[in-house]
Amino acid sequence: MGSCASGTQVPKSTLRSGSRNPPFSTRPDLNLNTPWARSRSSWREEEPVTKPSRKLVGKCFCGAVRYEVADEFVYAANCHCSNCRRTTGSAFKPFAGIEREKFRLTTGDDRLLIFGEESGHDAHCGHCGSLLYSVVREGAYVHVAMGTLVDDPSIRPTAHIFVGSKAKWFTVTDDLPQYKGHVT
Ligand SMILES: [Zn+2]
Ligand SMILES: [Zn+2]
């Protein structure tokens, strides 16, 4: 799939470190109750607890599939590529990207219609056909089709991408930056 679904490029600075492992060995023979180990464990207790974030709900047209996603989207854009136009039947697809672990299906995971591979696919409701989200970037991120959100997210689309393959019958009328392909 030569489209945005193969992985939207985002600036490196917006990527978060995935590792939460403490920077010391976890060998069992070092987990002794020594003063050194105690100081390490008290250091770990001082680590900030992940603060609970606002949760957004989304669903398909018929309601068979529902999801919950943290209101912590990393980026959002309107994609004009031909795949997004066809999967949504629209001029473009507003989508918002987030780490996959912050997205969770709450109802109807057995009703999903998956189009694509495990590491990159579109997920539709198998009953009504709504495109709910895409798994992208080697399975690490989810692009939520913003039209399926029930709640209002904090983020707004900040760009038009793949304007190079935009439908001729549609004119972009806002002032958001436009990119021929991915954001550069
Ligand atoms: Zn449905
Ligand atoms: Zn697209």
UniProtKB/TrEMBL annotation:
InterPro entries: CENP-V/GFA, Mss4-like_sf. SUPFAM superfamilies: Mss4-like. Residues 1-48 are annotated as: Disordered. The keyword Zinc applies. It holds the Pfam family GFA. Transmembrane segments: none annotated. The keyword Repressor does not apply. One of its GO terms (molecular function) is carbon-sulfur lyase activity. Keywords: Lyase, Metal-binding, Zinc. Residues 56-180 form the CENP-V/GFA domain. Residues 1-24, 31-40 have a biased composition (Polar residues). Belongs to the Gfa family. This is GFA family protein. It comes from Mesorhizobium waimense.
